[in-house]
Amino acid sequence: MYSIPHLDLPPLRGASGRVQLPGSKSISNRVLLLAGLASGTTRVHGLLASDDTRVMLDALRTLGARLQPTERALEISGLGGTLAVHEARLFLGNAGTAMRPLAAALAVLAATQGGRYELSGVPRMHERPIGDLVDALRPLGCTIEDLGVPGYPPLRVSGQPGGQLATAQPIRVRGDVSSQFLTALLMALPLVSADRDVVIEVQGELISKPYIEITLNLLARFGVHVVRDGWSRFTIPRGSAYASPGDVHVEGDASSASYFVALGAIAAGAGAPVHIDGVGGDSIQGDIRFVDAARQMGAAVKSGPNWIEVRRGRWPLDPISIDAVHIPDAAMTLAVMALYARGTSRISGIASWRVKETDRIAAMAAELRKVGASVVEGDDYIEVAPPTHWQPAAIETYDDHRMAMCLSLAAFGGQPLRILDPQCVGKTFPDYFEALFGLATADPAAVPVITIDGPTASGKGTLAAAVAKRLGYTLLDSGALYRATALAARRDDIPTDDAVRLAAVASMLELRFDGERVFLRGDDVTDELRLETTGALASQVSSVPAVREALHALQLSFRRAPGLVADGRDMGTVVFPDAPLKVFLTAGAAERAERRHRQLLDRGIDARIVDLRAEIEARDERDRTRPVAPLRPAEGAQLLDNSLLSIDESVDRVLGWWEQRRPFP
User: What's the confidence (pLDDT) of residue 255?
Assistant: First the structure.
């Protein structure tokens, strides 16, 4: 996951390949709570790893459930409906799928078994309504205190052992604000249904009905079979109790699938579709109906058990007019697809957007306007007309994962896009951007490049790695390519003057980067590449024109979305002469010898500074005078003397130059 302030996307142009969806958030947190409340041990397969599931897992541990990760699943030994911990403070982040059901379950358990629990979250959670759920629970006899603004978290629920709940009469709850209130009651009330049927009546039109279908399906898996009378009356049979089904497999997230369905509709050619694994037409999730809406707009979609395949069909897309009350989360993706339609689209039935992680109607309208769209917003609808002129934009994400993911698709409009706070996708899909870049392609000339060149021991590798990390860009350590070539040649007993064989080694270099480790022909050679002897040999190998030509194509292949930071001695002069930012490091030989001496001492290698300086000066001379790509600043390069700068100061200097070249307001 990208843990950076912003992520810049170049203009994207095509997409193809295969993606594995993470587990459904809605299913994951429901299964976790049901397993925690049930008797027996449940093995949960395919669980979503995200911020929302993390807070639920933390809450279950705090409440006394036993959680044991195994190689293939998470084993949860449930509480069997009996409280093990009678006082706790639970922090639930911004997870409505944790806050609402846990508040209801703990309220009824505390009222009958005794206990005191405080539930809180991030500031935005304290702005998300819970009053309708509280209003349904208090008449039962649940003690619930507002610890902040009435009707909103944080809350305290409490009670005394032996308490009784008034379940003889129907429990009434509003259904027109959030379906999570009904879900919370459906999950909590089987805990107190031993003596009589418990009836829940919904007041008003129930929204997001497909999410209630998920709840009912999962309740049945855990042994509670709710009788439904339309969408207004639900009966939990007397004697209901949760029992583990043994194994539960979590489907891939259908809401997350919407981004890749849209990706295929926008950018996948006829012969190279986007293939989505983890959810299919047989899904129990309501958001799978997004596929029908995408087809209506022109997507060519096929599906089967646990998979969906999408290509571009009609283009531009057809505008859509849809009541999206049944797919409120996935409907956000339709608003972005509307950017690529031939007319104005209208998405209605989305009043629930107002009370989600942010006010999504207002947020979506503001961000779509930034890229050039014309937008009209209402209480429960949004109308989107595509841009006549696309604009570069910095997209605010409002700490809302779905804003970040669906708006990333605006990068296909021909202009660069900045996603602010990209790590907010960790709520449901931590690796979303990695998955996107694994499928999407960009014109290499449009992929931004920063080159960092300089003499040996100038710190260019350290600086390049730090800059790449701060930007979320790919890193090309070109020196590692030459050192690996030199190392492979030495292992094959190839002399440094045998240009033909050296070029052959370079052209077939079996090199793999895995984080900070480097593997040559399957062997970890990270430490060996850093040896002075390897560096000296690489200096000789790099002067061979045939070797440089053989490695040139490999170097160019690193230029891929979202961007590249390349360090070496000729990145700005030869390999990427069109890079928008070229940096040339300068530092005196004495200072570089001191740095190299400290590095060697840290590795337990003894060396004399005077010898190191002599080696550095000799290598500088070779690099400056070699006939092929001699070491020199590229035209227009920014000179950076880092002799007296810390690495952080150097990084800030480079990023300052970079920001001046970005097109975002």
Answer: 94
